[in-house]
Amino acid sequence: xxxxxxxxEYNHFxxxxxxxxxxxxxxxxxxxxxxxxxxxxxxxKLMRGMDNKNLExxxxxxxxxxxxxxxRIENLESNHKIIINNLxxxxxNVYVKRYNPFDQVGGNLSFSIALLDKKGDGIVITGxxxxxxxxxxxxxxxNKASDYPxxxxxxxxxxxxxx
Length: 163
Fold this sequence. Notes:
single chain; 3 domains; four-stranded antiparallel beta sheet; 4 helices; 54% helix
């Protein structure tokens, strides 16, 4: 028996099988078409987003906002470092010592004021008051010490200003 005779003998089974496969293929195509249509509807609904806004546009806008925020934070961090460096040389430590250096003058009118930065650099100002006169002295301070002689009150003002 050759192939032609086999096909001729079983042709009605082959036709039924081919038609069945075609119908099954058609059903599968229709099912996948319906499924694809549903997925496309869901996808479009998702991409439409809230209030009929495009989700992609919303995401791009939020990405831009985040990038802008990151840039601003980096700028703020840079400015913060500059400010911290500047603060070290700003007046931070202040102490006022009032006292009475002379017996005949009361009221603790004399004073020594220490005005120092974080490193102990700055100035100490001393005002001495007597019955007949008053004098004010300013002495530079570097690293909590001065090249000029300091009185006990000035030393105390510097020490207490630095904590």
